[in-house]
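Subject: Sanity check before I submit

Could someone independently write out the structure tokens for this chain? I want to compare against mine line by line before I put it in a report. The sequence has 410 residues.
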Amino acid sequence: MTTIKRSSKGATVEALVASDPDLMKALMKQALQEVLEGEMTELLGAAPGERTDSRQGYRAGYYSRGLVTRIGKLELRVPRDRNGEFSTALFERYARSEKALVAALAEMYVQGVSTRKVKAITEELCGHSFSASAISTISTISTISTISTINKSLDEALARFATRQLDDAYPYLILDARYEKIREQGVIRAQAVLIAIGINWEGHRQVLAVELANRESQSSWKDFLLRLKERGLSGVEFVVSDDHAGLKKAISEVLTEAVWQRCYVHFLRNALDYLPRKADDDCLQELRWIYDRRDLQEAYRDLAAWISKWQAKYPKLVDWAESNIGETLTFYRLPRQHHKHMKSTNMLERLNEEIKRRTHVVRIFPNTDSCLRLIRALCVETHEGWLEDNRYLNMTLLAEQKKEALRLAA
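---
Independent answer below. Compare away.
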């Protein structure tokens, strides 16, 4: 096992990365270790080896303690002091702070943030205040050389994920985009983050691609999908997305064998544009109920009743819905057990919410590389969690439905 040599300012990230092939696990361990060191520095009033009149005690080695996390068990070295006064709330608070910790890792290890921000993050994790001197060991990771080392190792791992060959077939594909603010040459611009999720024939979800584009356009989506096909994307039968015109055209041009499902949640949001501000709440609620019907025939019967009821009161909405709702009912051709999951982009929306919650800490990225690095790292975490989960959908139902369709066609 590689030995990590510690200096007065903490372990070097380069040694850390070399010592553990699982980068995220190693980074989490390093962050927690630095927090423990910062707590001890706060208690004693002095960093390791520091000479100061304000010192309140002395260090007396370490003892080992394990911490079980979602990505494995971490063996931490908890510092001791000679008087036995040191205690930490880290282990008790960890269960509540794990999500915040992942965001902190992204900030501290990927971004190379200021001491002020690191101080705020450690306070959030541990629940009490730290002075700037007490986090000196943590803030040393923000040096240019260390961040360069981190970025190089992290970029290599993320590039392998982003360019990996897609050997499975993915009958279901979900596409969506969100925007992040990035500073480029002194100007802040919003850039689109394009994300694709696939579900393979084993029923497992996978993050297939995460890329940045200057804007969400037909050309950017088309290039995104073509790169997916170059990596081996195949077997796509059903695609879910919102009603973005450029995305729709790109799907029709690149995924020619797939049928398209317009996200019904986005559709219902769009419906608000055709209603007066003080509209009857029952109108949209009854439209929403159409998507819970057992089959397409039942859905169209309810749609006819809805049109008859609301045509006179809200003619603009009814005319618009009648012309466009068919795009949102494609999911009825799938097995009924898949309807709930495949009639919207909610699965990807939830991932986007997690991304938003964590990127909100950064607010404005210093460059496109840092933005893509953080978001891909978060997506890799989600991707690996999905692979460990039980299957998301029973795809045997789709296979049996396809066989039955072929039998009837014969």
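---
OP: Matches mine. For the report I'm noting this point. The beta strands are 6-7, 10-11, 59-69, 72-81, 172-184, 187-199, 205-213, 238-241, 259-262, 364-365.
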